[in-house]
Amino acid sequence: MMDAAAQRQWAEQWREAAKALEEQRRRELRSLTADRALAASDALLGLASPAQASPGRRTHSGLVEQQRLLHRREGR
Prior knowledge:
Layout: H1 4-31, H2 34-48, H3 63-74
């Protein structure tokens, strides 16, 4: 079992790691292109479904259309 000083050191180490990981995440998101985002989403969706994404999916995710529909319902 850790003493109080070791616990504080361990917690501080993880706080610093969280900061470093958040900065890394921000750098990766800033450099993410639409093509890479679509390729990553295709790869993830391919894990859940053996079917390949339709050719239209490679250029249009449907997110904008979904947001338009949700915002229209919200305005009722």
